[in-house]
Amino acid sequence: MRQFDHAGVPTATHAIGEQGIRFVAETLAALPPGGVPHRIEHIESVEDDVIALIGTSGIVASMQPTHCTHHVRGDGSDDWSRRLGPERAARAWLTADVRRSGAVLALGSDWPVAAFDPWEIMADAQGRRSVATPGSAPVRADQALSAAEALEGYTTHAHRAAGSDGGRLVPGAPADLVVVDRDPLTVSAEELLEARVLLTLVDGRPTGGH
Questions:
Q1: What's the predicted TM-score (pTM) here?
Q2: DSSP characters for the chain?
Q3: With bands split at pLDDT 50, 70 and 90, how would you rate the model's confidence at 165?
Q4: pLDDT for 73-95, tens place per residue?
Q5: Going by C-beta distance under 8 Å and a sequence separation of 6 or more, which residues neighbour residue 143?
Q6: What gap in Å lies between CA 5 and CA 62, rounded to an integer?
Q7: What does DSSP say about strands 177-180 and 197-202: parallel, antiparallel, or unpaired?
Q8: Tens digit of each residue's pLDDT (9 = 90 or more) over 134-150
Q9: Residues 5, 9, 19, 27: what is their CA dihedral angle, to the nearest 10 degrees?
Q10: Nearest to 45 by CA among 66, 26, 68
Q11: How distant is the alpha carbon of residue 196 from its chain centre?
Q12: Of 73, 125, 132, 142, which is the most exposed, with the fewest CB atoms less than 10 Å away?
């Protein structure tokens, strides 16, 4: 890891369990500050002091809200929760705690092993439940992201995770953007599921609607 950092090569390390996440976070925290961004991928079950370390050390967190909302139940009756036990399962996908630690939080899907629809992922991040499934119960509702935090996970924070200052509508920013038929900051999570892209621009050039 030191060799990669010294050479200016960003890294992404897959870590899902508490010991693995701690090992990676402590390794990255020991690198000289101010280098290229290094990312921890998934961060499923994690302890509070490790979240704090991620936030204070400039480590990028990449998390998948639908891993939680599609595969974990709030009552702990799912296979994942039963295998981990109630104490560790309660530390599942703590997106709000990670974000509020000061960490960069990029959201994603883990495609191609999971569905990649960003609208569903942003909706579930806000609801902490499978919004597409009526009546589904939330999992750790206190870990819900705000609409702005969910959107940032796919825009400014995604860019920061790659060492870019993009994802913003400001003069001089990369003109890679989409125009959608509703405001993701004001609609309900259910309405967000129905969002449609009207226009896509790449480097300022239209590539067509979807």
A1: 0.94
A2: -HHHHHTT--EEEEE-SHHHHHHHHHHHHTSPTTSS-EEEEE--B--HHHHHHHHHTT-EEEE-HHHHHHH--TTS-SHHHHHH-HHHHTTB--HHHHHHTT-EEEE---TTSS---HHHHHHHHHHSS-TTSTTPPPSSGGGPPPHHHHHHHHTHHHHHHTT---SS-STTS---EEEESS-TTTS-HHHHTT--EEEEEETTEEEE--
A3: confident
A4: 999 999 999 999 999 999 999 99
A5: 93, 94, 95, 96, 97, 128
A6: 19
A7: antiparallel
A8: 999 999 999 999 999 99
A9: 0
A10: 68
A11: 21
A12: 142
Paired tokens of 77: 């009756």
Tokens found for residue 118: 């960003």
Nearest-angstrom CA–CA distance, 10 and 41: 13
For 167, the token pair is 């994802």
Inter-axis angle of helices 18-29 and 48-56, nearest 10: 30
